[in-house]
């Protein structure tokens, strides 16, 4: 890479000067609103200043993300890159050079297509973050009135949670909503797929509820309703029952394990777990001290369901307006296995910074 004559946080007036840093033979790609130019002298990445988790740009002081459906040629070239990239963000008074970036991780995301995390060197200060990731207006967060329905009607509670947490989108053909009443599946599952017709995100971002195409091919016997992301296990039900037990299947040598909640409650738990891991803004920690986590959950409302993933890591869910908290490993020990907090706005995470928890990832 050819050396350039400016330091991190240098402000350039012309974007053409930035793009010229790539050198001869530039190959230009657009990835989630960001421009990526591979050249003989350097690889230049330039994005807008924003705080939209669904677009490429600065995520935190150490991370610049590329998110989109990316062509194979771009992915191959990025993966083979051995030298740092030059990271820039458009700001009102020019183009700000952030510093060099290294490819930290990449892969195919279930909802957003290609995802790559670039490390920013050196990390950005809070004041610089406010320039390149300006705070979004705080909208009223989704409420938690749906909690009152959980003990008597988990399916109704699920609908209220999903419609509050996720914006309405398109993606699943509208015909699937009508098909939901025609396929021989339990009512809670049919209702779930009617919701997915307008909010396909609920099908999962880590683990996945089976799409209608798979359910329609069911030829009898236990119905597989969801799968683990690496295919290590799946969940099955008896489709002839109105609200059947959910059975976790590992392989043909291991007896299936019955989940604590029937299908209606399990679908709500699944949705909360996926909302936590796929939330727009998150805080994550592994093996946190139990007293610190107890201080956190004491300010929240616990979802009144029995343990999710009880045979792996007994998990509970706690909520507040705009927040979903997943606590794994409730075994009565000195630590929990993990805590994942998801928020609909970055500002809702800020109070968590003062809890004494050493977060592995913190979007606040």
Describe the structure.
The protein is of the alpha+beta class. The chain has three domains: 11-132, no CATH class; 145-272, no CATH class; 276-362. The chain contains nine helices and 20 strands. The strands form three sheets. Strands 1, 2, 3, 4, 5, 6, 7, 8 and 9 form a nine-stranded mixed β-sheet that branches. A six-stranded antiparallel β-sheet has the order 16-17-18-19-15-20, covered by helices on one side. Helix 4 packs parallel to helix 6 (187-196) and helix 4 packs parallel to helix 8 (263-277). It starts with 10 loop residues before the first strand and ends with a strand. The mean pLDDT is 90.
How do the strands and helices of this protein lay out in sequence?
Blueprint: E1 11-12, H1 15-20, E2 27-31, E3 34-38, E4 43-48, E5 57-60, E6 63-68, H2 72-80, E7 85-91, E8 94-109, E9 113-121, H3 126-132, H4 154-165, H5 175-179, H6 187-196, E10 208-209, H7 212-216, E11 223-227, E12 234-237, E13 247-249, E14 257-258, H8 263-277, E15 281-286, H9 290-297, E16 301-302, E17 315-320, E18 323-328, E19 338-343, E20 361-362
Parallel strand pairs: 4-7
Antiparallel strand pairs: 1-8, 2-3, 3-4, 5-6, 6-9, 7-8, 8-9, 10-11, 11-12, 12-13, 13-14, 15-19, 15-20, 16-17, 17-18, 18-19
Strand proportion, as a percent range, falls in 25-35%
Structural class: alpha+beta
In total, how many beta strands? 20
- List SSEs in N-to-C order: EHEEEEEHEEEHHHHEHEEEEHEHEEEEE
Summarize the biggest pleated sheet. Answer: 9 strands, mixed
Counted up, domains total 3
Radius of gyration: 23 Å
Q: Can you count the helices?
A: 9
Oligomer: single chain
Mean pLDDT over all positions: 90
Instruction: For the record, give the distance between the C-alpha atoms at the N and C termini, rounded to a whole number.
Output: 34 Å
